[in-house]
Amino acid sequence: MIKAIIVDDEPYCCEALSILLDRYCPQVEVAGVYHSGAQALEPIREQKPQLLFLDIEMPRMNGFELLEKIKSLNFELIFTTSYDQYAIKAIRFSALDYLLKPIDREELQLSIQKVEQRLQAPLPQQFDLLFQRLQNPSSLFTKIAIPTMEGLQMVAVDHIVHCVSDSNYTILTLKDRQKVVASKTLKEIEELLEDYHFLRVHHSNLVNLNEVTKYIKGEGGYLVMSDGSSINVSRSRKEGLLKKLQPNRS
Amino acid sequence: MRKFGIIGLLLLALAGRSWAGPGDARQHAIDSLLHKALSDMRTKHYGQVESVERYADVALEKSRAIGYTHGIALALACQAFAANMGRNDFPEAEQLSRESLAWFDQTDDKLGVTVAHYVLGFALFAQSHFEEANRHYDLAREYARKQGNRTEELFMMSLMGEAYRESGDYEKAFRILRTCAEMAEAEHMSVMAQSQYLTLAGMFVQIEDFPDALRYFQLGYGNKRPEVIDPWDLSVYALLLTHLHKYDSALYYFGKFDSARLPPTLLRTYLASKGEYYLFREEYATALPYFQKSLSYQRQMNDNNQIMRCLQDIARTYYGLKQDAAAFQYAREGLHLAEKSKARQNVRDGYRQLYLLYDREGKTDSAYSYYKRYNVLKDSVLSDWTKGEFASFGYEQKIKLLNKENELQDVCIRQEMLTKNLLLAGILVLLLLGGVYIWIVRLKRRNEEHRRKRAEDELEIQRLEGERSKAALQQRAKELEVQALRSQMNPHFIFNCLNAINRFILGHETEAASDYLTKFSRLMRMIMNHSRHSTITLAEEIEMLQLYLEMERLRFKDAFDCRIDVEEDLDTEEVRIPPLLIQPFVENAVWHGLMHKEERGSLLIQLRVQGDMLTCIVRDNGVGRKRAGMLRSKSAEKHKSMGMQITAERMDLLAGPGEAKPFLQIEDLYDETGAPAGTQVTLTIKLTTSTGTPVEANV
Lengths: 250, 699
Description:
The complex is a heterodimer of chains A (250) and B (699). Helices cover 34% and strands 30% of the residues of chain A. By secondary structure, chain A is of the alpha/beta class. Chain B has a five-stranded mixed β-sheet, covered by helices on one side. A two-stranded antiparallel sheet of chain B has the order 1-3. The longest helix of chain B has 69 residues, at 364-432. Chains A and B meet through α1 and α3 of A and α22 and α27 of B.
């Protein structure tokens, strides 16, 4: 049995989640339901749940504030939220799990499955990433949590030279020539990095524009990166790339 | 009144109809008489209309004898035409053509009714009854259009344009003449089109926009030399040159007139223009005889509009000669005529002349009184001028844009051609010169691209400028903005409602789910409906607020009380306010005041009317702004403060410039101990009594 606590300011949301868990995830046992961060703080410390469902937007003490106080405890975490692009971005950046309300049954089951497989707390670095990103969303030195086959790898955004798609995986090449195989599609990676200096130059290539050393002309041409590798540019994306590379070109 | 003399040339391509109408042989005889009259109308001009009149007289007599209604109607119209063109007896022409129209009313055979409308219009125009003249021109145009007679239709349009011009409505004149010219160009009727350009040129001379006048003259003359064109236009052209200080050229063109051989119709305008040339050069003694001769011809022709012009010119000349008594006499007569015909620019000039005269005589009171009147009119005439100029400006802008676009296309096509040629040439050249040639070609291509890019940029700039020049667009933008702002419904609220509904469904509480869902739909529908109107009744706003509050209360299981307190004698069905103005403040009170409170909260909405102002107080006993600010989560803050800010901006927008702005005041409340005890928002909104005008909404 997985012992879970639900924190959400909306009574109806708590009830809906309880019902879903009861019906479709019998391996989860709801040990408590609380309607604000302040209310939930003590019970969480006492009961030490294995799984926490945490709403973000709550009066008095919101989800992030509560998390900051209890992050040293060992628990699995699933955020629940209706509509908050800003928070969702930060959560994805730190590779934490979240569910959108109203909660989809199958998505919930999938999340619980993942919890069962690992049943270990998120890494402290993931929380660090989350708070860092929340406080300073555009910092260049930010790290990103990349899910891999083995687990998670924290990668500094400015260390990524380029990313190449390989069906459902993406191969990241870092400055030190290290390669990271991410269990995410290139599109997902692109979305995560869209606020930084990255550009999709080809159906299967995403590059860090700061690491481009040369552009060689051709039908689409290709890029030579700082690590010496060459990256194909597709004809349709050539124009956009040139614009980025020469912003002042008239 | 350029068209005065050349009517017969253009009008009445009536012959198309086979004249074998219904009826007996006698009717046929009459028809053929009238047919002759009409075809003479087309071929004879410059007042040689005796034959028309003879045919019409006989036809009328015979028609009356056998009671042939259509014959009577058309014969009368022909007589009216003769009265107009032959004798310049406009009152008689008016009377005859009205009679003709009355007969036309009694028959279904409308053939020739255009003639009657046109003649009546012209008679009215010559007597300076512009509005009514245009009504009849328009009817004539409509008939012509139905019959598919393009020549007549365009001709009527050009007459309408001229009437607008003469009445001082330059904007309308510009529009209609321009349209007419375009239609003529499309039909390859170049003479007709040029005639419109020349009329426009005359108009721009009149409103002293000389560069535009010159442009339209050039359009009108086409490749021809000015002197081969209609003498009337030539005299206006010479006058334009005078105003542009090209005296030699002006005199050269004036010299092209052989005054001995000109018919009076044209002589009078030549004389007036040449007089104005001398007047402009302040050679008053020389100018005077020209005007006087012209005036006597004008009087013969009964042309009210030109008579006014001459009278005023003479008054100015006498003023220049310091013969004030004579100047007074002519100025007064001119003004009298102008006032009668409501030709504003002439009235204005009359006032000015009289003010100058009185001033010189030292009669300051009278002078002042005319000066005042002159000033008032001056502005209104000026605004019409600018309107005319504006119309022209906007038009030119459009043309320029189109030209640019064509240019762009040309460049593109050329580029394509170039590429094709290159392919062919490339094969040959590869053998000979190889790489060198390709290098040159590349260079060329880049040049083309540069050029295209420049053209594109220019196009964009011009488009922007064109937009900027249109105040109407700004108005529309304002409307749009208001609409956009209204569509701001807090997404958190929507999702919260959906979450609650989902919970009821999961719990198999179908009744509750259905209740909640219907309430939610009702609220959504209300918001959508309201956002389509610029104002709604207070009752509707209250209903919406109640529903909104009910949903918020349901969501938090009655965590707070609320009350809407409406002043007793306030008729909420009568009072109208802009929609969705109060809701954001109520939402704010619930989310930031009451939600943070541990105990049960309460919310009070008070509505009072004082004069034409509605005061709305939203008071909560929540945690107060300060604590709410501390407790607020960072992400939520964004939306909420945006909601309030948008509403504040909207309130500013809703009040037009110069109007009292709605008033917004936010106070912190404290209890006896000085601890925060909630927030109070006071909104003061100006009431509108008129019913809400719906704005277009894309819901």
